[in-house]
Amino acid sequence: MTLDLFPVMKMSAAISDCTFYRDELRRVWNAAKRILVVCMLNPSDADHERNDPTVRELIFFAKLWGYGGILIVNLHAWRSSSPKEMMAAADSIGPRCDDFIHRAFIIARYQDTPMLAAWGSGGDYLGRDWWLMARARRQLVDLVCLGLTKDGFPKHPMARGQHRIPRDQQPIMFQNARETVS
Fold it and tell me: Are 100 and 93 in contact (CB under 8 A)?
């Protein structure tokens, strides 16, 4: 028996023809296992050929938690490593973003897994965090996170300094979809 220490990872990305928007990013290393569905603030330059540090961190946590892949969607599909640049875009959400988020919820619900909320500060831009949280309740998909920022946002995987995510971090409930809102 041989142990494959470096299995082939299938990499894909849904990028608009104009290349300004990335609606989805997938990495699958074990198709027999469930996929960790993640929602972040906005995409940077990771694509179907290359990972960035954030994607590598998400892969690390997904493997730690027993998943066989990740599917990343974003509150805003505008591609930029700077949230300020994304917020300056005329249309930061893009024409297909909501459809891809809807599909991500369907996958999470079908697998009976939560969605990892990891948008960090800025998720409240255009009310997208509340929009996504309401959608999660309607879809009956729990939201988990890696911890909370001082302002109560779900931490970004690349949080730094004293807010850095511990390497053994387990998912923390952010929003129980079946819990009533008062």
Answer: no
pTM: 0.94
Per-residue model confidence as pLDDT tens for the chain (182 residues): 455 555 689 999 999 999 999 999 999 999 999 999 999 999 989 999 999 999 999 999 999 999 999 999 999 999 998 999 999 999 999 999 999 999 999 999 999 999 999 999 999 999 999 999 999 999 999 999 999 999 999 999 998 888 899 999 999 999 999 887 66
The answer to whether 66 and 33 have CB atoms below 8 angstroms apart is yes
Query: CB–CB of 141/111 below 8 Å?
Result: no
Angle value at C-alpha 142, between 33 and 146, nearest 5 degrees: 80
Cβ(39)–Cβ(83) under 8 Å? Answer: no
What are residue 97's phi and psi, to 5 degrees?
A: -55, -50
Torsion of CA 138, 95, 154, 168, to 10 degrees: 100
Q: For residue 52, what are its two tokens?
A: 């960035």
Domain ranges of the chain: 10-175
